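Quick log. Single chain, no ligands specified.
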Amino acid sequence: MRRRMLSACCAALLVLLCACAPQKPESQEGIDLYFAVNDPQPGGQAVGCEHRTLSNTAEPVEELLLLLFSGPTEESGLIPPFPNGVTVLSWRQEEGRLTVDLSEQYGDLSGIDLTIANSCLTLTLCQLESVDCVSVTVKGNTLFYQTTQQLDPDGLLLVWPEASDDNEPLPTQEPSEAPNP
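-> predicted structure:
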């Protein structure tokens, strides 16, 4: 009797642990769209999301791109991470990699702005079961200054960098003593 109870408890624990594992949504009816935080605080979140419902009639990638580039709802308090006028020129999917080709305005992004825009694209699109990583091109070309060409949710910056105190001196390295000849 004890053995059966122990087996039942182990089986229940296993089911609970499997349920807690992060998974991609089974149904694409509801999904999170990621946008930039309007007034990020140092050390605070750089991106936020709003939940939307997808239609079951459209191609999910196309619908997500359309919703993402349409921007957040006003009540969300989020802002679009993309420059004005940027459009999706095309997209293609090869196995788990989704390549999104954007108009030239996206190429104006750099630094933290590019990181946030890439994060919003990646976090939104990688929710689809068929998408493991995202590549972004501008008018068919990769951005030469973008160090990572395949973006996945595990390697993204989601927190706004800490502010630095301008009065604080930069760390210096003491010169090593040269041996006496």
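Residues 25-155 form one domain.
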